[in-house]
Structure formats: structure tokens, C-alpha cells
């Protein structure tokens, strides 16, 4: 679904500043379409969705940084992006909390998705993991987002 289709569904005119971020969001949308139609041959079932999680993270981080770090977009435009589901609102809500600033995806903090009812392995600090082992999250492919 392209950005234009999402805009028509919202039936609201985009706020000022939309022109500045529209091209970047369109690029992310194109990357997302490419990742969705990419071949899954030779990949594990979970590996097929890793690029989608990464693109979702990049797109959400882009808007988050523009609003909270650089303060280059207005609150109206930020809220418009959330309402239009151009970004992952739950992920951004986690980024605002201490200790979750670099969280890769929301599934990594959901205890119900793990075997032992704990957080994902990528949430374990790198200092507590053997440095010679490469550990990847089963859900999103992250190699450690806790720092």
C-alpha cells in the first residue's frame, strides 16, 4: 500500500512539513514492498521477516529522531504519522522509557514469546555474553539492542 493510498484513507490533509518527510517515507515504503516480495528460498521461517522488522525500526526511528532529538517536525505532523500508521507507535512509546532507548522491536520485550517467560536474548547486555559467540534474536535478527 503506497503512501498516497494511506493518505486517501485517512481523509485528512497532511499538516505543514509533510512535504519534507514524504519522500523519505516513500523510500521506506518501497523498501518494505521489496522486502515483502523478496524470495524466502533457503531462509528459515523466522528469517524471512527480519528485513521487515529492520525497515519498520528505521522508519520509526527516523520520525522519532525528527520529533524528539532534532525537533524538526511539529507535534501535529508527528501525531499525523502515528494516526496514519506510518510509524510503530508502540515501539516509539518504549523508546521513551529508560533502558529501552535502542530497542529493536516490541516482540523482544514480550515475555510470552520466549520459551522461559523472560526477555529476548538480544536484551542481555553484551558484557554478560561470551564475546566469541554470535547471538541473534529469533524474532527480528537483532544482535543486541540493550547496549
From TrEMBL:
InterPro entries: BUD31, BUD31/G10-rel_CS. GO terms for cellular component: spliceosomal complex. GO terms for biological process: mRNA splicing, via spliceosome. Its main location: nucleus. It is found in: Nucleus. Pfam families: BUD31. Residues 18-45 form a coiled coil. Keywords: Coiled coil, Nucleus. Belongs to the BUD31 (G10) family. This is Protein BUD31 homolog. It comes from Panagrellus redivivus. The lineage of its organism: Eukaryota, Metazoa, Ecdysozoa, Nematoda, Chromadorea.
Amino acid at each position: 500500500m503506497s503512501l498516497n493510498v494511506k493518505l486517501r484513507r485517512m481523509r485528512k490533509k497532511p499538516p505543514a512539513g509533510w512535504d519534507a518527510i514524504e519522500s523519505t517515507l516513500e523510500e521506506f515504503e518501497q523498501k518494505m514492498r521489496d522486502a515483502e516480495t523478496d524470495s524466502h528460498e533457503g531462509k528459515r521461517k523466522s528469517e524471512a521477516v527480519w528485513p521487515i522488522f529492520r525497515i519498520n525500526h528505521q522508519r520509526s526511528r527516523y520520525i522519532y529522531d525528527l520529533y524528539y532529538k532534532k525537533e524538526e517536525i511539529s507535534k501535529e505532523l508527528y501525531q499525523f504519522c502515528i494516526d496514519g500508521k506510518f510509524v510503530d507507535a508502540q515501539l516509539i512509546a518504549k523508546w521513551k522509557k529508560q533502558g529501552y532507548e535502542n530497542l529493536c522491536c516490541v516482540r523482544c520485550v514480550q515475555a510470552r514469546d520466549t520459551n522461559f517467560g523472560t526477555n529476548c536474548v538480544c536484551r542481555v547486555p553484551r558484557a554478560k555474553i561470551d564475546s566469541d559467540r554470535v547471538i541473534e534474536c529469533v524474532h527480528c535478527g537483532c544482535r543486541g539492542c540493550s547496549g
